[in-house]
Amino acid sequence: MFKKLLLLCMLLFTGFGFISAQGISIGIGPQLGWQKSSSADKGSLMYGAAIRFRISDAVGLEGSINYRSEDYANGALNVKTWPIMITGLIYPVNYFYGAIGIGWYNTTFNYGDQPFVQTLQNNTQQNFGWHLGAGVEIPANQRLNITADIRYVFLNYDFGDLARVANSGDLISNFFVITIGASFRIHM
Q1: Which pLDDT band holds residue 152 (cuts at 50, 70, 90)?
Q2: Domain count along the chain
Q3: Interstrand relation of 175-187 and 59-72 (parallel, antiparallel or unpaired)
Q4: Confidence of residue 87 (pLDDT cuts 50, 70, 90)
């Protein structure tokens, strides 16, 4: 895992050198979202940060890291995830974009104290998923863009024996997220 993360960092720094040579716009800032997994007990906040590269008027790229937490099977399981996503942005018209990308999800499963899940072991998984969506990126001033989008994430957690012991049937971990963000622009 460390080698993969190191390789990703090296690729990003190489990309920064290319971007600065091309005069491409970069934006970095916080994100806040509301997310709900198909089988989760309820929706919750998701927060993190993103960096956006506007390669041309029609194409962009976003890298983000977030934190999300949700409960399943009436609180029998708490799932905490740190998604790292890479998203391609296509701007068919100014301010509006379509988004498609992949994500790596480092996920911790913490089982509650209900008697029927005490035999299950807490564990951590790494999963890959993909997402698509659409949004807007509106300039607020010379240095700040406001972003908002909705994305649907296709993600397959391995819930193991939870569905059987919690008598909750098939648990689905796909989720949607509605985010808003601020992107502070840097022109190279």
Answers
A1: very high
A2: 1
A3: unpaired
A4: very high
Residue 44 one-letter amino acid:
S
DSSP character string of 102-117: EEEEEEEEEE-S-GGG
Q: Which helix (H) or strand (E) holds 13?
A: helix 2-22
The predicted model scores a pTM of 0.81
- The answer to whether the CB of 63 falls within 8 A of the CB of 12 is yes
Q: What CATH number is attached to the domain comprising 139?
A: 2.40.160.20
The answer to whether 11 and 161 are in contact (CB under 8 A) is: no
The answer to the question of residue 5 being in a domain is no
Contact (Cβ atoms closer than 8 angstroms) between residue 31 and residue 178: no
**Is 124 a member of any domain?**
yes
**Count of CB atoms within 10 A of residue 173's CB?**
23
CA distance 119 to 133: 39
The tally of CA atoms less than 13 A away on the side-chain side of residue 129 is: 25
- The set of residues, in sequence order, having a beta carbon less than 8 Å from that of 91 and lying 6+ positions away, is 57, 58, 59, 60, 97, 137
Identify the domain containing residue 171 by its residue range: 26-187
Residues 79, 84, 90: CA angle, nearest 5 degrees? 125
CA distance 47 to 62: 15
Tell me the C-alpha to C-alpha distance, in Å, between residue 14 and each of 20, 51, 145.
10, 15, 25
